[in-house]
Amino acid sequence: MQALGGVVTLLNCVLCGVIGVRLIRFAARSKGPEAWLGGYLLAGTLFGTLLSSAVYISWSDPRVALPPGWLPPLHALQFLANTAGMIAILMFTHRVFRPRARWARRAAPTAAALSAVAFFVTAAVERFEVHVIPNPAYLAVVATRVAAMVWMTVESLLYFGQLRKRQRLGIADPLLVNRFLLWGIWAGSVSLMQLADPIGRFWYWWITGTTVQWIPEVGRTIIVFLIASTSALGAVTAATLFLTFFPTAAYKRWVAARAITE
Question: Domains in the chain: how many in total?
Fold first, then answer.
């Protein structure tokens, strides 16, 4: 199961890296919001996932644990990468879906300020040592990251609904309509994957009663369950991300045929 989870994670990282670079290069010419999405895929997904794997790999297999002195700086870098990704996805959602909304314009600066407070609190209180349940400021940022992706999910699916009405009138490209559906499914799956981490932590705390000590005999069962869940979701994110940006000829024909029959 761990091997399958590793393959799915690697596939998503490769996809996010390739698409992220392409989006940033495209945005350099178009001056559009694609750079923010590319920044999220590179910082929040690619680098954030790699750093998270390095920090927490010992929880699933102590034999491959990194030296203890490496963990706090890697944990701090992971926090920064995930925060950069969160700010980028908030900016992208604001620019694409709610460009004129004042509250949407304030989302990224507010999240950045909260993250800055959480970073310094975690550095002062925990020195970025790895705890099962981090301090409340850190958890608030985790909740904000999930909320950012949920917002992206809702906006994508709402826009998909609007475009579908236009498609029925013959004034919207079926492939474009389908792309927003795929993107909404991708964002929703990412939201659920983000929730898996806090669920696993509080599940472990509920069983053991400790917020600091990691007991492998207890934690391994939880990790196996979470790996199975996130691997299934990861397969969905990989498929939808690929089809959003690299739709195959067969998939395009399928989308066109469905549009005719609807």
Answer: 1
| pLDDT tens digits along 147-190 | 999 999 999 999 999 999 999 888 889 999 999 999 999 999 99
User: Range of 73's domain?
Assistant: 2-261
What is the predicted pLDDT for the residue at 222?
86
Which three-class secondary structure state does DSSP give residue 100? coil
* Domain of residue 235, CATH code: 1.20.1070
Dist CA 246 CA 240 (whole Å): 10
Q: Say which residues have a Cβ less than 8 Å from residue 119's Cβ, sequence separation at least 6.
A: 76, 79, 80, 83
**pTM of this structure:** 0.92
**Which pLDDT value is given to residue 94?**
97
What lies within 8 Å, CB to CB, of 116 at 6+ separation is none
Rounded CA separation 255/262 (Å)? 11
Q: At 61, which amino acid appears?
A: D
CB–CB of 39/20 below 8 Å?
A: yes
pLDDT digit string (tens) for 27-65? 999 989 999 999 999 999 999 999 998 888 777 777 777
Buried b (16+ CB within 10 A) or exposed e, 206-234: eeeeeeeebeeeebeebbeebbebbbebb
User: In residues, how long is the chain?
Assistant: 262
Amino acid letter at 260? I
**DSSP3 helix / strand / coil % (the chain, rounded to 5):** 85, 0, 15
Please report the pLDDT score of residue 50 as a whole number.
Answer: 92
Per-residue pLDDT of 191-234, as tens digits, reads: 999 999 899 999 999 999 888 778 877 888 888 888 888 889 99
